[in-house]
Each structure stands twice: as C-alpha cells, then as structure tokens.
Design goal:
GO molecular function: DNA binding; transposase activity
Strand content: under 5%
InterPro entries: Transposase_8
Number of domains: 1
Helix content: over 70%
Number of strands: 0
Radius of gyration: 14 Å
Shape: globular
Largest sheet: none
Pfam family, one: HTH_Tnp_1
Number of helices: 3
Mean pLDDT: 75
Order of helices and strands: HHH
Protein name: Transposase
C-alpha cells in the first residue's frame, strides 16, 4: 500500500471541512495539493459508486 503524504487527522479534517461547505480549492490550498488530484479521486469514487450501484437490480 502506498504511503500517504497526509496524516489520517489531516484527511479527516479536510473531509469535515468539505462536508461543512468549504470550497475544494480552498481546502486544497490549505493542504498544499493541486485541485487536479482531487478531481482524479472524485472520478475514482464516482466509478466505484457506479460499479457498486450497477450490480443492484
């Protein structure tokens, strides 16, 4: 498994900020990551959701 650049606490804090309504570019700027990486993860989450929901009748 690939080692994460961020601690579990940082990831949880970023997710909570996002759920609270903070804009993704602001969260990315705070963590020092590009927003391109976030769109890539959203795409993988979207495809994972499609795969799981697609198997249901």
């Amino acid at each position: 498994m690939k080692k994460s650049r961020f601690t579990e606490g940082q990831i949880i804090a970023a997710l909570k900020e996002s759920e609270a309504g903070a804009k993704t570019p602001d969260i990315c700027r705070k963590l020092g990551i590009s927003s391109g990486g976030t769109s890539r993860s959203k795409d993988s989450e979207r495809s994972a959701t499609t795969r799981t929901s697609g198997s249901q009748p």
